[in-house]
């Protein structure tokens, strides 16, 4: 049997044309884009046109897009800028943010920031009213992830932003609204300008691009902490990863132009998967995924529990059978307490969280893979349940 | 005539085998190294072995090497860590640091650091005694670039470190010594452990690797500002650029294993180049390169002036003739004042600095290229001198 890859939220298989495109770009665009000779200008021109392509796909201006080294880097540019100038001294983060945002908490507290966490309801979704309750006259920064990488919950960003902007108008102090949109890009419709957010982070390798390249949307330029040669409008210095930028823009083109079709296909696969999962003894969906209103959960991420079987045991056994799933965020795979933070905050009991598995889908998955996966899952769970009670 | 590339200090042409290696790596190592399934572990194992290779080449321990997105990123990790905990409140930077270090000055001052700059002598070289004069009981951090990217000066890092360590012993307070070794790696012998430094930055694309990947040597782990999924021992979070890491380690292998031979060849080319340059009317070497003790200047970087002809005019005209040189650091090409900072600090007059050109060589350059370059240079200068007096 061919391998079944259901860990797309950790990283997507690379688009088949990209390795060649990257290899050609490495040869074609060798000049340093900051060099003023012909080879430098040739690289610079390519970056400009890649930026234009990405901006067009996101329906924003090219100068609002900063190429970074990935989602964590994009988040870090925003978060570390808070060390520089205090935009108010109160911050609101969702309790289910990615570690690249959440783990900033300790350092932000050292710098005197007061931080409140907004928890989602037991369905993993954040209610705008809950943020409203936390807003203070000195609130200056809010970060809410668009699509959660573990629960798949699609946060009502538009409604959240409206709530914040209304408070902002009355209060008269600017609030920077950031969203980690790494799991949203290319998966669900996401237009930064329409959402009225101030910044958003994206990653190439989650949409079939290479690792090591990402994007940061910035409504307006900000003062950043790090500095250097002035590249990327001074927001993200360092010689530009030209071949990575070319590959990212191509991956965005492929993903965003096929977004609707991929979404529909994945929605069908998700429905099939859920209909099977609910009938496997020992598997429980972590959220009421089979019966929710549309656009509340990404069809690309399905979260379940096989408790009392430890999630990591099942992941390892399925891996031996050629199936790749995960227990949650790959980025938290080293630390158990950190590993269950997001699920805990989303109302999942510690017991259920310890048995959690994440099945994340992508554009090349098929019905057959879902059926084979469920059969192998059922077989293994029935064996494992004899040892884990 | 084929193009003559003499801008290696800005970026080196990629090693011919790397585009293919990268393309294959992108297909072979698709898993997220943090994923616990087979594909994840396969990527993780590769990163580990690449790290071992790099560590072996630098004669240090693998856990002392952090993969970053480039030289600026490596420098930024070190500099931004200063915002977190004040290791003393006095810092010494060389006045000829790369912008990715030098430009931190403003923000460090905001955070209450007192900064002293050590200027090189008129030969571009920093005298350890000059640093000694600046050391204070509360000095906690010092950064001195190993090979200057504009002047080619090789700073006496070993002597500088000895001076600092002696003061450190007497004073009883730890001083973190950092060096930007981007222009040293693969060019001159550089062994971090022998130098007794605390950290050093490296970049792949300066030694024929791809852009967007670099290294940070850390003698001991440090607390860093940014945070995330714990990758790279928590020092540099974010999904690892696996293919970039593979390519970097290969580029290091190719450069470091051929270091001696390349150095000898380049030394010969430099001697030839200098012997020709001194005979071209209107060209003046910026440092006494023809008559200095060994190991004071990198043979890879030659700095001259064609004043009163503006350097950027000559760069553009030579570019039209298929020759790539630069006026100085590519990273400062956008800002004239910033552009001449390093030369000014190295004792070059503003007039000479405005006519400065940097000729930077690499392993594939030939005697013929030097001769052709000098002929074309002479021809163009004699024309330009009619208009620039």
SSE blueprint:
The structure is a homodimer of 389-residue chains.
Chain A: E1 4-5, H1 18-28, H2 38-58, E2 65-68, H3 71-84, E3 90-94, H4 99-102, H5 105-110, E4 114-118, H6 128-134, E5 139-143, H7 157-171, E6 176-180, H8 192-195, E7 199-203, E8 214-218, H9 242-257, H10 259-277, E9 284-285, E10 301-305, H11 311-320, E11 323-324, H12 336-345, H13 350-354, E12 356-360, H14 367-384
Parallel strand pairs in A: 1-11, 3-4, 3-5, 5-6, 6-7
Antiparallel strand pairs in A: 2-8, 7-8, 9-10, 10-12
Helix pairs in contact in A: 1-9, 2-9, 6-7, 10-14
Question: Can you describe what's shown?
Answer:
Two copies of one chain form a homodimer. The first copy, chain A, has 389 residues and is of the alpha/beta class. Chain A folds into two domains: 136 residues, Aspartate Aminotransferase, domain 1 (Alpha-Beta Complex), CATH 3.90.1150; 239 residues, Type I PLP-dependent aspartate aminotransferase-like (Major domain) (Aspartate Aminotransferase, domain 2). Helices cover 41% and strands 13% of the residues of chain A. Chain A is built from 14 helices and twelve strands. A seven-stranded mixed beta sheet of chain A has the order 2-8-7-6-5-3-4, with helices on both faces. In chain A, strands 9-10-12 form a three-stranded antiparallel beta sheet. In chain A, helix 1 packs antiparallel against helix 9, helix 2 packs parallel to helix 9 and helix 10 packs parallel to helix 14. Chain A is globular and about 65 Å long. The mean pLDDT of chain A is 94. Chains A and B meet through helix 1, helix 2, helix 3, helix 5 and helix 9 of A and helix 1, helix 2, helix 3, helix 5 and helix 9 of B.
């Amino acid at each position: 049997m061919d391998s079944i890859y259901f860990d797309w939220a950790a990283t997507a298989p690379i688009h088949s044309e990209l390795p060649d495109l990257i290899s050609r770009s490495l040869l074609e665009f060798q000049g340093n884009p900051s060099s003023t000779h012909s080879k430098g200008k040739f690289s610079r021109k390519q970056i400009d046109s890649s930026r234009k392509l990405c901006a067009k796909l996101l329906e924003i201006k090219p100068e609002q897009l900063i190429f970074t080294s990935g989602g964590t880097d994009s988040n870090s540019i925003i978060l570390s800028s808070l060390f520089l100038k205090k935009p108010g001294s109160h911050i609101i983060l969702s309790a289910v943010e990615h570690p690249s945002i959440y783990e900033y908490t300790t350092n932000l507290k050292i710098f005197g920031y007061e931080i409140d966490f907004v928890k989602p309801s037991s369905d993993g979704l954040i209610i705008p009213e809950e943020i409203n309750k936390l807003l203070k006259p000195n609130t200056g920064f809010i970060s809410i992830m668009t699509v959660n990488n573990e629960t798949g919950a699609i946060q009502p960003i538009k409604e959240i932003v409206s709530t914040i902007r209304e408070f902002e108008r009355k209060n008269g102090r600017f609030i920077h609204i950031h969203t980690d949109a790494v799991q949203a890009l290319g998966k669900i419709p996401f237009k930064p300008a329409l959402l009225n957010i101030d910044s958003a982070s994206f990653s190439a390798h989650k949409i079939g691009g290479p690792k090591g390249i990402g994007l940061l949307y910035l409504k307006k330029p900000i003062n950043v902490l790090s500095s250097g040669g002035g590249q990327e409008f001074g927001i993200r210095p360092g010689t530009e990863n030209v071949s990575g930028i070319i590959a990212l823009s191509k991956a965005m083109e492929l993903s965003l132009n096929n977004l609707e079709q991929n979404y529909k296909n994945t929605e069908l696969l998700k429905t099939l998967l859920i209909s099977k999962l609910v009938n496997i003894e020992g598997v429980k969906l972590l959220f009421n995924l089979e019966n929710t209103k549309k656009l509340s959960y990404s069809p690309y991420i399905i979260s379940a529990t096989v408790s009392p079987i430890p999630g990591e045991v099942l992941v390892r056994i399925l891996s031996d059978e050629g199936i790749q799933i995960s227990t949650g965020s790959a980025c938290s795979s080293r630390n158990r307490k950190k590993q269950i933070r997001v699920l805990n905050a989303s109302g999942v009991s510690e017991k259920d969280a310890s048995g959690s598995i994440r099945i994340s889908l992508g554009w090349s998955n098929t019905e057959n893979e879902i059926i084979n996966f469920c059969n192998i899952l059922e077989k293994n769970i029935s064996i494992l349940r004899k040892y884990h009670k």
